[in-house]
Amino acid sequence: MPSHTLPLNDRTGRHPKLTAAEAAELAGKGFRFSIFRPEEQEFRLSLPLQTIEDRVHGTLTIEQG
Fold first, then answer.
1. CB 39: neighbour CB atoms within 10 A?
2. Using one digit for the tens of pLDDT, what is the confidence trace for 10-28?
3. Buried-state track 2-38, b at ≥16 Cβ within 10 A, e below 16
């Protein structure tokens, strides 16, 4: 199961907004995308997906099953 931690940066929800660099890093770790359009800055991770918000440390961990 791929897992990756990002800065929270006021992101919430099941489908966090990703930068092109973050999406490329996730793809490199084996994450699957239902939408991957770098030219339009549009990315959506495929389900099943779990996000864990750590507001104390300001991180967002994404796990994909």
1. 6
2. 887 778 999 999 999 999 9
3. eebebebeeeeeebbebeeebbeebbeeebebeebee
